[in-house]
Amino acid sequence: MLFPYLDGAVLAARAIGTWARAAGFAPDDVHVIDDAYVDGRENPVTCARVQGAADALFAAGGPAVEHVLLAFCGHGLTDENLASICWLFSDSVAAKYRVVAERFCGELLLRGVARITLISDACRDFPPRLDVLRLDPIRGVVLNGTPADSPLMDRLAACQDGAKGYMVFADQVPGKCIFSGVVTDALWGLEATAIADGVITTASLGACVLRRTTERAREYGLKLFPDCSVAPVPAILHRVAQPPAVPDDLQPWPPAGAGTAAAGAAPAPHGEAAAPPPPATVDIAKMLRTLVRDADDVTAAPTMKFASGLPRRMTRRFRALAMTVPEARANLVVRAARRVLSSAAAVLTRVSGTGWRVDAPGPQHAVLVEFNDGTVAPAVVGRDLLVSLLHRSGGTVHLAYATRSASWDRRRATDLIGRFASGSLGRDALPHLVAHLSHSGKPDPVVTVLTAYLLRADADIAGIRRLAARHAQAHGWIPFDVALLGAMPVERSEAHGMVAHVPTVAAASRPAPDGWPAAWCAATPAVHAPVGGLCPWLGRGWDYVCDPRPESRVLVDGLEVYASEIERTGFTVFRRGLGKALARTWRLDGK
Fold it and tell me: Record's superkingdom (predicted)?
């Protein structure tokens, strides 16, 4: 499979830029960066070019930027879970990097941006297991400053988690990306349903694009289901009473039927806007063979089948523990484990065939569990929590916590973890996650972690910090991933290991969204709490280990050398040999 040139992406980006200028955006505030040839020479989209545009937009002494409309059209990756998007710039494969969209947006928010409207038309013409692609995950742009209070995030993405986006084309004409084509038509006022009361707002645009993308794809015999989520407070994009004139050169839609294809990209560029591709086309399949681990033996069906029984398995495991260890001695339950490794500060006792007791000075203690097949998984044992690890052949591990009471909390938590394990936990689950945490006296740490990732996809750093403060008040510590995603200062303490400083968070300036507990938006105090774990709990967290911001350097110090070895799907699992190396690095010993 070749890595094709997306001529339609160039035209889509230019069309959005042309609309922005016509709609009243100041010319200096509109930056279009594409990889069309200039005077017969290559002009790739690189981090350096994007950084230059960002520096110009946020020039020192310039006016504050309240609303950024950020559009990406091109190759990209959409994860199976947790609303993750990565973008590939022109030199990404050759330079072995990918841009994590949430981290890119997070940099923009550091300049006080109050709202980002993200349009991501990242086509997926790749193998399905690209969450393990060994391209270095980076921010793509570096900015500094102070984030605005409770910024808003609109997200219009071409495809839902784990799905494909498409570009259609006909002979001798440039391709047209379906999703960004619909977005462009809507912005120019060519889609009547995008207009509400004489204006196009983020809400009306999202609703129109969600419906019309599916309908437009159907005209070409395709199935395309975008992910369109907008902030509850709509923003006006422009007023139709003074509509900009539609340009004569707005790219038409190719005719449906004969002569039209859909393969994620055109086989070759056409026309002046997209000059001939580079002579040496990258063979993406060959590259992937060196970047992807175990891609051939992964199938979705066994994972779905295993995950569907996860709540029942977890509940049965905890019930068996209570029956066989009535003295509540075990706080770690693992089947098919060869040994458990902990630091010298902990007393590790095996109390049954599947149960261990870990006693440590603090409220939590990090351990490694080595399974019979040689794979190793990290876990955090809490003083007053039961933690269970479920392991299946192939190296997949699932992690869950429970107290010895509150059975409905346990069931609710394992239901949510089951959705994550089956690849179906998206942003629509946020109200359920928040409700569970708000009504739990002892919130499940895994649910806390899952919630943090979805909040980060919405650029809600304040929400992550509220989450951290409440978890610290309930448990006396916060999970590693929450400290990492919440951009919290971390320092090393001889007595407590790594300690996160959770800043004070003021009450939200807007009411809670529909379906969210009102208490979620309340203020939280500053908290200092130990960090639970020595690395990210989820594979996805390793995308934040490389290219860290200064406040996260202590937290991730030394981990970046292992990041390319970790699969991004599910919970963190170390393959044979890597777990032993990390045990030596962390000075963990086992029995």
Answer: Bacteria
